[in-house]
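User: Show me a protein chain along with its predicted structure.
Assistant: Here is one chain, sequence first, then structure tokens.
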Amino acid sequence: MKIAISDEMRNIDRLAAEEYGLPELLLMESAGHRTAQAMEHLLGTTAGKTICVLAGSGNNGGDALAAARYLSNMGAKIKIFLTCEPAHLKTAAARMKKITDKMGLEVHALEEDRDWNRLHLALKFTDAVLDGILGTGIKGELKKKVLRLIEEVNEAGRKVLSIDIPSGVDADTGRISTVAVMADMTLTLGLPKVGHLLSPGADMTGQLIVDDIGIPQPLLQSDKIQQTLLDDKLVRTLLPMRSKSVHKGDCGRILVVAGSLGMTGAAALAATAALRAGAGVVTLAVPASVQPVLAGQLLEVMVQPVEESREGILSGEKALSCLLRLAQHCDAVLIGPGLGRAMETQELIRMFAAKVNKPLIMDADAIFAFNSQPDELSKLPQVPVLTPHLGEMAGILGVSVPELRESLLPIVREAAAEYQCIFVVKSECTLVAYPDGMTFFSSVGNPGMATAGSGDVLAGTIAGLMKQTESGLAPLAGVYLHGRAGDIAYNEKGESLLAGDIRENLAAALKELRQKQMNA
């Protein structure tokens, strides 16, 4: 499923009218009908319920007014509150208002103190609120009337259904300038929006329902829309089924360069995650002095000691030669988890990345090695996969995390093109951005995964899939399986889950995916 930014959605609406002959009023009618059905889903039944309908001047308000008519026909008692004077309603919304007037539905303005008192009382006794105040076109600060209205809704604590996006949320970024409606459910029209998936907008959306409202699929699946939801339906097409004659070499020989004194856990998690993701052979290259620690606990991983110039860290020409030699016999390389930030280690990482000509995943300390010289990324012999969290991504770009969050999608997309990398940016909704502009948003994952080592497991999962699918697609399959494994673990452990729980549930996530492939 594609994900739209607001300009793309407006263009879709325009093309629906111009190329398919679908007038705005017809789409508004469909939106109103589906909204009423969503409200019934939220409440269980609408018959005998009181519903406050809040309508703005634009198409979002028109959708709400259309829904008010359907809800009334379904037996609900409707109280409509307009945020504007009726004369300021847009054409289609005004048509819907005219119909509600003919039906004798209760409509109120919000101008005088008594109007606000009436609203306050209505919200106190209503069963639900229908939010049709703003929609996806809002940018910048809210008007005082809208700000007050949203605060009244949130303070009332009633069930809320938002149309398209909770009012006050920026549809393209998820930003909230001042305040936004806290919805229990959001019915988004046509396609999901970026603001549904990125916080704080994601926190306000509640249950997200997507409905095409009759918009032709060729418009909704246009190749010009470069954002896609990464779900199981997509991932099933990326990971081929194994043949009966498969052997371990077919499944991938993976080199993991990781670990240092005091940070052996990251190396262990990454290497074993690669195996759990289905890799056939995993070699873990670590500083010689920590090799015995890891070799004793990792029975299925080949733990290779690498000569060190200083105890517990990788550095020096001999180490570089050893790593390049090991890489020659592997299908893909993961470097970074727990390597440390010693200056000589950072130099080794940069030299290795510049010389190794294998699919390369860089995580954690390997990403940090390029903070001072990100332009070197575009000169590497391969298109590397980088797996930064927001802090690491901000470090590469030389910005603060708040600045990055302000425009996460365009910034990450631009960085992928400029540095010729595949960025897997870990946040509440992980983004995978390619140099050609294609960007994927994860549909899985949960707050319990905010735990030390989770990123090491993700990096290992991606590495373990590099031979099993096309290497450029491994980040997509890896992000999905990692997130799904986290969801399975969360169902059992909740917020007490550990990174190891995610790793161990990769098996269940992969089995689930294979079952869906067979049943498709």
